[in-house]
Amino acid sequence: MVVAVASRVPMFRLLVLGAVCLASHTAFAAGDIDPGIIAAQAGAYLVAPLDGADGCKLTLTADEAIGGYAVTGAEGCAKSLPSLADVAAWNFDGNGGLLLIDVLRKVHARFEEREGSPLLTNGEDGPRLALVTAVDGISHLPAPANMKGAWQMKRPGGTAICHVRFAEAADSDGNLALSVEEPCDSAVRKLKLKSWTANGLGITLLGEDGSSLAFTATPSGFEKDRNEGGKPLLLVRN
Prior knowledge:
Layout: H1 3-6, H2 8-17, H3 35-41, E1 43-49, E2 56-65, E3 68-72, E4 89-92, E5 98-101, E6 107-111, E7 119-120, E8 129-133, H4 144-147, E9 149-154, E10 160-170, E11 176-184, H5 186-189, E12 193-199, E13 202-207, E14 212-218, E15 221-224, E16 234-237
Antiparallel strand pairs: 1-2, 1-8, 2-3, 3-4, 4-5, 5-6, 7-8, 9-10, 9-16, 10-11, 11-12, 12-13, 13-14, 14-15, 15-16
C-alpha cells in the first residue's frame, strides 16, 4: 500500500463518514469535513495510468474552491492526461473515494479505495489511473511495458550481487514472470524468485515458497523497501 495515499482515506472514513449522511458518489460541501483530515489528504500527487504510460502531477490543497478544495498544476496534464487538464478542485465522494472536479463541478476522475492498493479509477472512461504520492523525477508507474528486460541488484556504491530479467507474461494469478540469472548471490538465490507484481510506485518480487522482496521506485531505479530490514539494496537496469 502506498502509505501517503492509502493511510489517509481510512482516517477520513472513521472520522467523517459516520457523521455526515450523503448519497453514494456525492461530494461533501466545503466545511463539512474536519480541517485536519483535509490537511492530511493535501499534498503533491502523481496521477498515472496502470499500463506504465506517463502521468502528471497535481497538488491537492486545503484551500476551499468550487466543488471542494483547490487543485493546482492541472495544466501540466494537457499532454499526458488531457482529460485532467481542466481539473480545479478535489473532494471526498462520501463513499470512501476521491473526486477530481472542474469549475462546473463536472467529475473528471473518481478514485476508489481498494484494500492493499492505492486509490484507483475503474477504467470505464479511459485507462485505469492510480493516485499516489508524488516523487521528484518519477512520471510513471512500474508496469510490464517499462520494466521488461535485464536488471541488477546491487549494494549502494557496490557491484552487482544478482542479475534478474523481467518479462511481460503473466501467470494465472496475474503475477508477471521473473528469471534470476548468473551471477547471483546465494542469499538472493535461496528466495527462489519467479514472478513480480506492481502496486503503485512499488514492486514486489515473489518466490516459489511464499518468500518476497519489496522495492520502492526512485528516479534511478528501485530501492529495497525500508520495511524489509537488512542491508540496503538497489534494483537498477543493466
